[in-house]
């Protein structure tokens, strides 16, 4: 986690995500879920989570396969798993892993109608 107690997410992870998401008029950063979300076309793609690690938005039809074949877990909100939203622990985001998750989240966000 970050050293500033007012910020609830890992700033180093957010910086790494920012570099991978890139910039442009369609990319925005927004505090969300207690962390920092990166939106593409108004749709959340990935976030530095307040619970550590990252939240990644994926095609709901791919979610179960990704949970079964990767280190991802379902994102749970108010006790319910959210289809198409995955949590990836920070320990599983080393090397190329973060780039792969960010690319997956950005691709799915871009596939949705812009808001």
Structure characterization notes:
The protein has 115 residues and is α+β, with helices and mostly antiparallel strands. 31% of the residues lie in helices and 31% in strands. It has 3 helices and 6 strands. It has helices at residues 11-21, 60-69, 97-111; strands at residues 27-32, 35-40, 43-48, 54-57, 73-77, 80-88. The protein has a 6-stranded antiparallel beta sheet with strand order 1-2-3-4-6-5. Strand 2 and strand 3 form a beta hairpin. Helix 1 (11-21) packs across helix 3. It is globular and about 35 Å long. The termini are far apart. The model has no long low-confidence stretch (mean pLDDT 92).
| Classification by helices and strands | alpha+beta
Largest sheet, order of strands side by side?
A: 1-2-3-4-6-5
Low-confidence stretches: none
Please tell me how large the radius of gyration is: 13 Å
Number of helices: 3
> What integer is the average pLDDT?
92
Sum up the overall morphology in one term. Answer: globular
Tell me the strand percentage band.
25-35%
Order of helix and strand elements from N to C terminus: HEEEEHEEH
- Total beta strands: 6
Query: Helicity range of the residues?
Result: 25-40%
Largest sheet: 6 strands, antiparallel
Quaternary structure classification: single chain
Cα end-to-end separation: 31 Å
């Amino acid at each position: 986690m970050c050293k500033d107690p007012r910020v609830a997410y890992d700033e180093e992870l957010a910086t790494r995500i920012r570099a991978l998401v890139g910039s442009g008029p369609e990319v925005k950063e927004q505090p969300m879920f207690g962390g920092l979300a990166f939106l593409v076309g108004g749709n959340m793609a990935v976030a530095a989570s307040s619970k550590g690690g990252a939240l990644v938005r994926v095609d709901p039809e791919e979610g179960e396969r990704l949970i079964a074949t990767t280190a991802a877990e379902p994102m749970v909100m108010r006790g319910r798993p959210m289809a198409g939203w995955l949590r990836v622990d920070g320990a599983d985001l080393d090397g190329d892993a973060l780039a792969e998750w960010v690319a997956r989240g950005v691709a799915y966000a871009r596939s949705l109608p812009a808001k």
